[in-house]
Amino acid sequence: MYRMFKRQLRSLKKRPASANMTTNSTPKSSNSSHQSHDSKRDQDGGGDMLDKNLYSRQIYALGESAMMHLRKSAVLISGLGGVGVEIAKNLVLGGVRHVTIHDTKETSWYDLSSQYYLDENDIGRNRAQSCLCRLSELNDSVQVSASTEQLSEEMISHFDLVILTDADIKQQDIVNVWTRNKGRYLLVADARGLFSYIALDAGKDFQIDDKNGEQCHEFLIDYIDKDTGDVTTLDNVPHNLEDGDYVSFAELKGMTELNNCPPLRVTVTKPDVFNVGNALKTFTNHIGGGRGKQVKVPVKVNYVDLQSGREDPSLVIWDYGKIEYGICLHYLWQALYTFEEKHKRTPLPRNENDFSLFFEELIDAEEVEYPEYLVRNFCFQAKGNLVTTCSVVGGIASQEAMKLITHHMTPLKQFMYIDHLDALPAPGTGYDAEYLTEEDCGPRDSRYDGQVAVFGWNYQEEIMRQKWFIVGAGAIGCELLKNFSMMGVACDPSRLGVIKITDMDQIEISNLNRQFLFRRHDVGKKKSDCAARAARCFNPDLNIIALSERVSSETEQIFDDYFFGELNGVANALDNIDARRYVDRRCVYYRLPLLESGTQGTKGNTQVIYPYLTESYGSSSDPPETEIPMCTLKNFPHQIHHTIQWARDRFEGLFTNPVEIANSFLSDQRGFHDRLKTVAIGQQVEMLTEVTKALIDDRPNNAEDCIKWARLLFEEYYHNTIAQLLFTFPADQITSQGVKFWSGAKRCPHVLNFDCSKPEHFQFAYSASLLHAEKYGIEPVIDKKEVMKVLHTITLPVFKPATGVKIAVTEAEAKDAAENVGDDADQVLDGLLIKLAKMPIASFKPLKQIDFEKDDDTNHHMEFVTAASNLRAENYDIEPADTMKTKQIAGRIIPALATTTATVAGLISVELYKMIDIDGKLPTVPISRFRNGFINLALPFFGMSEPVGAPEKAYNDVKFTLWDRLDVGGNMTLRGFIKWIEDKSRMKISMLSSGVSLIYAYFMPAAKIEARLNMSLREVVELVTKKPIPSHTRGLVFEATMDGEFDSVEIPYIRYALPLV
């Protein structure tokens, strides 16, 4: 069935594109709509003000310049089937200024399998008009209009970009002539069953301002060799450049001609060395130091029209494991359009006569061999309509549309063909697609007709009985809910299936740009509740339960054995690694499939975790992020990242951590002192110092005290500390090695003198005073003029640097300083305890703990952090950052795009098709059937790979993986349990643990071992953990280490089923 075959087929006659298409004139309503686009754009002179809160995550991915291009643009989307609505949804969410949806087709039952903004009431109605209202609701800053007239050259002239879906080759070529005549861009996308494609024409000399969308790399320079042109980075730090990149230079000592010169093209020599050519030979010698920065230089690319491109196609590879499919699908799609034009219909599912007719239309292309399995399924799925396929191709096409509008990132060149053929039910399952018949896949006037055309009715009914748990209702969670509900997961009329979704978060404004199930009126509500309600609108038969608990070890009484025991699988939609790892461990324990996915800007990944076949999420991990050295943060910053992290630390050190400690002291002094005794004396001093500062030294009596405190804080941070640093290490200091102390990564700072007239100075004092007042529950001075008056009245003594102050220069010195508490630690501790004992504790009210919240513009958190960071940057002559950049770094915000999210959710939803078998069983299939995905829409790059298999281990020639375990139950003592393990493994046990608790070890005292051996397993676990086993716990997990012949031997973990009590 997988044999390759090739036939000498008659060539298709090439039909020249015509510039004349029979159309009616554009109606007044549509024409006026297009004119209103232009007039509105003229009025705005470049678009409305950018809502940075709404688009913040997208701005971090694309940049403000690209975002402003989107806010000025007008896009026409023709064809509102599953692909068209996905593109429209993503572009409306993305903030394209004007989106016109165009369609002349009426809604059919087949549309309802993928077009989530249509329902049964829309059957027979125009698709564009039917979904206009729902698309308009997505973003109130985007004008969405609908057109039902025939396309014309005059009509497309009103748009920057024309997108065609559901369009045959003849229509594509005609519109392509028009777009070229009018200097517009054209994007084409279509999907049938498990197949889809994208093609585009960006015209001649299309300029790409930024080919990859990555942040420009910056680095410190150690040495520049003017004779060779080699540039070496400081301390062998990688420069992260590529051949052909451009760099500029600044702050060089010697070779000053290179400072701020035009960017130079580089050739990479080593990870820490690059070459800039012969341009430096006439320059002065480089003495030392300096900074380099990558510069994005625009490039121009030529595209041919689609008709010419089809003759000699330039293909983007989708799956490197099936490279040969690309050219085959190129001609299969052309054959399909030819069939439909000739027969005025689409080939019927599993119809052999239609397959014969389709086969005759294949182009006789040289060196193209068509796999029979591919050709047959392509033909059989021509009427197929899957939301998963549309989500993938629609997400990618949306990003391509943004590239054409913004000139940001590299558009694909020029055709890309996508298939998910491995999602068909495989041999070894009860639904092997090989045996599907025309009747199995025939329509029944059902919303699932489009999916049934691919998989058959029996398979569809099994999907509807599935039980899945979605963890997270954010961006990916919303997309998964859309896909699952449209697929029919948990939509069985008898309610046998169910989707459970949980998310503890509430909806924020910044979510609306990509979490498309939410609207502005949902802000402040629970994500899971709103997402579940919206998903029911896609499919009213959906049986969904919304929860709002975090999935963690603290909630195992909710997410217990029964909860996981009834599931078919779990889909993660999480944004943090710890939560992912926890869910992963639960899925391994319950032997459930896990669909894992994540995004970061234009990058995305999907991972299939499948019982007994694959590794788990926790089997591998990314390298940990490099932390900023303590001494760099404290004394020697040289990047804006350093000053932002310092400012964020100051925020928590002023308004969060001390309050938590002080309130702990106020609420339970005895308990506080008991806990104090359990830590080292240095930490005791630190904790008590925080308490005394919060409750005594820094405590204000009124709002004016808060302003004075803020002014003193400025003096401490930006004048006195810097003055002391320069006193200890003068600007001209020479080290014992004979080099300047202030060189390399150490930037020599200078003090700042407070000046109310400087915005950053006042912003710091103003925001700090407000936060200080909030911390103590004091009504602050809001009027900035009044604050300024108070600031002008404050006089401070002249600071005198102290002698003998030790300042850590290296990380080792910083660590030693932190651990060295000094000889007078006991005396200091006693003084603090006496000071606190004299306080009238009863009269003290708890302080307000202020937790950093980046997305609230009214709370002054970002105002403080931005000012604090930029003032420190000014101390060290580092280029400052605006609030947006500061927010991203301080808030550790991950850039996000609706386009990437849709693509990733589509890919991982495709994998769910592969997990269906009769009666809810997991199919026994080869690992090669599954696909992990790694994508970068910016380049674009797509890597599909087989998952990594579960690593094997062995004991006594018994092989096992992480999915295996030993199960035992009944009333057992520890002695009996150990004997059972030793009998099972034929080895002696050396250690036994449960979680972090050591239950048994050969080195324990004999009396302790003997006492425990006679106890029941429940009793010994409760003894060791010092707490009762929770009532919801049905089993205990143990790990045993056995004595091998030469070394310790690992065996599978043991699950002990607790007897009922």
UniProtKB/TrEMBL annotation:
One of its GO terms (cellular component) is cytoplasm. Its EC number is 6.2.1.45. It holds the Pfam family UBA_E1_SCCH. Residues 35-44 have a biased composition (Basic and acidic residues). SUPFAM superfamilies: Activating enzymes of the ubiquitin-like proteins. Pathway: Protein modification; protein ubiquitination. SMART domains: UBA_e1_C (SM00985). InterPro entries: E1_FCCH_sf, ThiF/MoeB/HesA, ThiF_NAD_FAD-bd, Ub-activating_enz_E1_C, Ub-E1_IAD_1, UBA_E1_C_sf, UBA_E1_SCCH, Ubi_acti_E1_SCCH. Belongs to the ubiquitin-activating E1 family. This is E1 ubiquitin-activating enzyme.
